[in-house]
Amino acid sequence: MTLEGVIAMQACARIGATHSVVFGGFSAKALQERIIDAGAVAVITTNYQMRGGKELPLKAIVDEGLALGGCESIRTVLVYQRTATACNMVAGRDKTFAEALAGQSTECAPVSVGAEHPLFVLYTSGSTGKPKGVQHCTGGYLLWAKLTMDWAFDLKPTDVFWCTADIGWITGHTYVAYGPLAAGATQIIFEGVPTFPNAGRFWQMIERHKCTIFYTAPTAIRSLIKAAEADAKVHPARSDLSSLRILGSVGEPINPEAWMWYYKNVGGERCPIVDTFWQTETGGIVITPLPGATPLVPGSCTLPLPGIMAAIVDETGKDLPNGSGGILVIKRPWPSMIRTIWNDAERFKTSYFPEEMGGKLYLAGDGAVRSEDRGYFRITGRIDDVLNVSGHRMGTMEIESALAAKTDLVAEAAVVGRPDDLTGEAICAFVVLKRPLPTGDEAKRIAKELRDWVAKEIGPIAKPKDIRFAENLPKTRSGKIMRRLLRSIAKGEAVTQDTSTLENPAILDQLGQAY
Ligand code: 7RM
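# 5'-O-(acetylsulfamoyl)adenosine complex -> structure
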């Protein structure tokens, strides 16, 4: 989240090189897989990344990822020295920013590319184990980034815009690295975390820099509500937030309580909240209120932007009337839409344009419902095997594959989401071990071992919050794991669904007790 991070992205764009940013919280293995899939020729990184006052060894993770093998396409590793601490440098391959810049001209003419030239590939989770490389183009993407800065945020030359997202995710691409500068905004780029040195940091930053447009995620708001309730010193009331005029929310549904708190305590009942719905694949905001123009309803992202033909349909692609929940689709293309999945045109077609729905509707992967009165959209959450944990997209299959790869311990694993007050959804793993059912301290020890394993395979963000052991999983006679039963059990609910197709109904009692 340094300025150099954004500079590196834009430098790639300037010379016509396609970039793929990998979030700093991913593991060496996740990085290696992305390098191989992308066929990257260089890695740009930092010696250490500062996070909450600590130095995180990013370059060491890069070295570890490259050492895992298969990354022969990498010719150069460029290292920005963020901190004074030394890191390992490989002669002939690694170069510091300072070394690379020495003796270079300060001018670099931009390389012209066609509008469809791939600007970047950003990996995101889908319903299979392998992340998808979402490919975006140069022209349409930048157009939509710029337009949505104007439309969703009503950007004026006097504004100070702050999007708190990390550049490792799409929100950080479009509303930190590209949109604000394309629109000529004055922007804040924040390297820190919301809770360091204390949970009043966002409010202090807004006051100090006279921020006028503030864009963050519901999960951050919820954790700051909790902190403000526990300690008045970090309450937004302690800071002068009168510079603010528009607030934004993104990444997951915002619950009406969090919306009201944000509206009152941060926006002083004066600032409209734009609840912006969009995805890695849409490139920019597609459903949002227009601040000051669209009457707001807490928990609703209201109406599509001009040109976005959003609709709610049934499984066959037929339109549903307002008031009926269904599948969110977009009927016509728009400038910043995903162009393809990197190296996998077939998966692009089958994931987003399902034949059962006629093959021409863009399937967002979310459920939604439109209100009877205004036709406002409310997103009800993913309808595929994708979880949203603190606004981060995680595939249940990815986590299952990671657990199953621990072959000395794990016979089988199933991962589902359950609602969580703070993180929106929490990861819950049901695990069958290759040894007798553990109890007490042994169960705790194995659960920790599995969590650490997942952190190594994917990254700390994928660690399951709950791990429940059982001797088996609920399966149909044809061997399919019945996840909807697991979802009820994860929530702590009694299983009320039809279990007549279950091969081993007795297992439900054991899973329930495990809870
Ligand atoms: C921008 C981003 C996409 C998924 C998407 C939804 C969920 C995002 C909202 C939302 C309800 C919102 N890209 N989502 N914004 N749900 N209201 N305003 O988050 O690719 O990482 O995630 O996030 O489920 O499909 S993403």
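# post-check
Residues 281 and 364 are 8 Å apart (CA to CA).
Residues 440-457 form the longest helix (18 residues).
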